[in-house]
């Protein structure tokens, strides 16, 4: 058995892992081939795509139900759990996105019912199957997110990878559908002939909405697609952690220590909340302004407002990330042991760095086009500065979140006021590795604590030694609390800023997509492909950054 970081493998993982990974690759490639083939034929309501996805969702739901029934019957899943996985805030976020997905399914079902004369029965059944899959998956992840599965490892690994492939293909289906719509809208804006033909096609299309209820269903579903995307990606990460923890058992005798619940104090983070609320308010104002000035003649003015607001926001986020990184460096709290032991932390950082490649790629492409074109108009200058500061902000935020996620407890913080007064046994100064204490060790601990307390009280009665003995710990505690308060405000402000940028990505203007400089330099098709491919990564990056910042904030409340 291989041992790593206090865990042992309970079953041979290599053959089952290889088989499950191969299953994931094959199913993902098959689904991608079907999705891309239908996209090239411009079939948004293809029965082949939705039929294949329905088969995957039904198979994954059947496996989850069987696993849940077997686990409830044996109750063995409660013996081995990973308390780092399946945080309560992660489950709450998953439930919110699942609720939005269920509402999306209701709108989609109503929309397909309205255009029943030109669609297939599979399209009507697809939202119902997706709703069943959503409810089943949320129940499964809420109940077993912390479980380290021990029985039937090969079968359950394949089941987890099949569910992971299903979520990835559902995400890809929505992304391709939304990207196709964006490309059509962009062509209609800048090409008069295509705009006229698109209008004529809409008028003559028998599948177009003819009732107000149909328009409500269609528009409502369009606004809920981003939440469905986040639900698929959140589920994928939790399924991967389950797959990674499969077969692992604690090597120590005692159970893992449960994390204490954080105590939230609004007064301590009021400055960060206030600034973040102002940023969110300005974000909604910027979105409304962009909607009213979306015409071609007013578009440059709307882009100037967007670039100016984004530059100010990115500079504030960059300064906050640098300040937070500096505070962590001054505290010298990095714990490199977590980098190899904690599956959840390693996955968080890997997703953070991987998804940041999306916005970074768009910024690098944009700066390259502006630099080699040599056209430095006011709009191009704003675009250049926007791309440059966005690159710095993403890199700085990645460094800050990685440093914060892997930070350990402050080793310089004294666990009691009498640490500096006498010769306390150092073995009790930090948390013990063992989970079970014997009666003799506990009595020795209590006796030593009482002796040290009496010794400190005697020193405190002395007018010369009392102040010297207690002044340094109190000063250290005051400084530490001040740094912690600053850090918590930085975390809250960055969290709300990332939510604001996520809202801009999803519902606001997309300046890079309509920039004429990049379109002329790379060509319309290539540039639109780059932007639409990287945009989903940027959306998930902002949401994942907000989730990671919230986790760091909860951890800072426990220090």
TrEMBL record:
It is a multi-pass membrane protein. Keywords: Cell membrane, Hydrogen ion transport, Ion channel, Ion transport, Membrane, Transmembrane, Transmembrane helix, Transport. It is found in: Cell membrane. The chain crosses the membrane at residues 16-37, 49-67, 88-112, 264-293, 305-328, 349-372, 489-509, 521-541. It comes from the Eukaryota. GO terms for cellular component: plasma membrane. Pfam families: Otopetrin. Its main location: membrane. The keyword Membrane applies. One of its GO terms (molecular function) is proton channel activity. The keyword Membrane applies. Belongs to the otopetrin family. This is Otopetrin-2.
């Amino acid at each position: 058995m291989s041992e790593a970081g206090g865990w042992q493998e309970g079953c041979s993982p290599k053959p089952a892992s290889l088989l499950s990974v191969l299953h994931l690759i094959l199913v993902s490639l098959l689904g991608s081939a079907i999705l891309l083939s239908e996209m090239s034929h411009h079939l948004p309501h293809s029965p082949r795509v939705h039929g294949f996805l329905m088969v995957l969702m039904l198979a994954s739901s059947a496996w989850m139900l069987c696993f849940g029934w077997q686990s409830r019957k044996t109750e063995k899943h409660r013996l081995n759990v990973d308390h780092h996985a399946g945080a309560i805030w992660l489950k709450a976020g998953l439930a919110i996105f699942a609720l939005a997905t269920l509402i999306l399914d209701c709108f989609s079902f109503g929309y397909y019912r309205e255009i029943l004369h030109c669609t297939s029965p599979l399209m009507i059944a697809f939202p119902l199957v997706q709703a069943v899959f959503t409810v089943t998956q949320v129940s499964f992840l809420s109940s077993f997110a912390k479980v380290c599965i021990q029985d039937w490892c090969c079968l359950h690994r394949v089941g987890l990878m099949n569910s992971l492939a299903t979520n990835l293909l559902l995400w890809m289906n929505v992304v391709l559908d939304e990207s196709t719509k964006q490309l059509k809208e962009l062509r209609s804006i800048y090409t008069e002939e295509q705009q006229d033909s698109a209008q004529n096609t809409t008028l003559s299309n028998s599948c177009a909405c003819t009732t107000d209820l149909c328009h409500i269903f269609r528009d409502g579903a369009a606004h809920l697609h981003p939440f469905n995307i986040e639900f698929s990606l959140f589920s994928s990460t939790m399924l991967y952690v389950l797959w990674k923890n499969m077969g692992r058992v604690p090597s120590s005798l005692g159970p893992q220590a449960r994390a204490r619940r954080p105590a939230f104090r609004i007064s301590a983070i009021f400055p960060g909340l206030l600034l973040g609320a102002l940023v969110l308010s300005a974000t909604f104002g910027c979105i409304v302004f962009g909607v009213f000035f979306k015409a071609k003649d007013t578009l440059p003015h709307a882009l100037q407002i967007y670039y100016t607001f984004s530059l100010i926001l990115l500079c504030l986020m960059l300064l906050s990330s640098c300040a937070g990184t500096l505070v962590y460096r001054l505290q010298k709290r990095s714990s490199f042991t977590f980098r190899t032991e904690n599956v959840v932390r390693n996955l968080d950082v890997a997703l953070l760095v991987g998804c940041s490649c999306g916005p970074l790629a768009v910024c690098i492409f944009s700066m390259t086009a502006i630099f080699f074109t040599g056209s430095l108009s006011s709009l191009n200058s704003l675009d250049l500065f926007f791309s440059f500061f966005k690159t710095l902000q993403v890199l700085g935020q990645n460094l800050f979140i990685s440093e914060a996620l892997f930070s350990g407890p402050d080793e310089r913080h004294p666990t009691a006021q009498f640490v500096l007064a006498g010769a306390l046994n150092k073995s009790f100064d930090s948390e013990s590795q063992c989970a079970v204490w014997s009666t003799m060790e506990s009595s020795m601990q209590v006796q030593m604590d009482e002796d040290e307390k009496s010794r400190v009280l005697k020193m405190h009665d002395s007018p010369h030694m009392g102040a010297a003995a207690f002044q340094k710990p109190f000063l250290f505690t005051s400084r530490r609390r001040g740094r912690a308060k600053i850090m918590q405000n930085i975390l809250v402000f960055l969290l709300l800023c990332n939510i604001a940028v996520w809202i801009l990505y999803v519902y606001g203007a997309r300046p890079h997509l309509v920039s004429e400089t990049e379109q002329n330099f790379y060509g319309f098709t290539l540039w639109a492909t780059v932007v639409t491919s990287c945009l989903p990564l940027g959306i998930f990056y902002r949401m994942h950054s907000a989730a990671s910042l919230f986790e760091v904030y909860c951890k800072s409340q426990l220090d």
